[in-house]
Sequence to fold (255 residues):
Amino acid sequence: MTGSGPIARVAVVTGAGSGIGRATAIALDRAGWRLSLLGRKREHLEETAEQCHLAGTPPLVCPTDVANEAMVDLAFSQTLARYGRIDLLFNNAGTSAPKTEFGEVELSHFERVLATNVTGAFLCARAAYRIMRSQQPQGGRIVNNGSVSAHVPRPNGAPYTVSKHAITGLTRQIALDGRAHEIACGQIDIGNAETGAAAGLVAGMQQADGRIVAEPIMPIKSVADAVLFMAGLPLSANVQFMTVIATAMPFIGRG
Fold:
């Protein structure tokens, strides 16, 4: 990232059509970043773009399946063509599978979650890394969206838990390899934010002892503000891992 110099900062946000991706894109826009928005559905991305206009340049909308290598490479090429550089990737796109006891997990569900959450994250990070390595001034920052499930699982969530543990490995590898190119990489692990899944949390989630318990949630803005903090650091500093949770959620002591 180039800091407060004359070159405008450019961010790519994946999964930008809703939830944490949308909230973070809006926060980055208000902080003056130029944006490239990636997600599956153009109409959802355009809804996000309509709320992002303070930086003076309308966001670039790039409908993208992050698990598709050609689509990812095209989106990053379009971003580079428009803005000339990339300073930040918020690697946020993700999906989950139905809660299923481990012995009954369907391979198709497992493969679908890993395709988006792991392969997709890898492809987007690799595309950003290649650009950041080559651009002048060199470098940039990648923030991967992990989860508290990167630390401890919920019952019956094998595909998602496995995928988020993989993100931790991806983050560490990029952080190591990126040192030579002024590329910083960190991970934000989020628990119980006010997204589309919040209704299920309020209604009650299965706990390790089998009870169904309503869980507290935190404002989605809290997550966006945390990502904005990570993004705003100079490249000489890095938040390697940040865990942001609803204070009273059953995470500490889960299981």
Summary: The chain has one domain: 10-245. The mean pLDDT is 91. The longest strand covers residues 183-191.
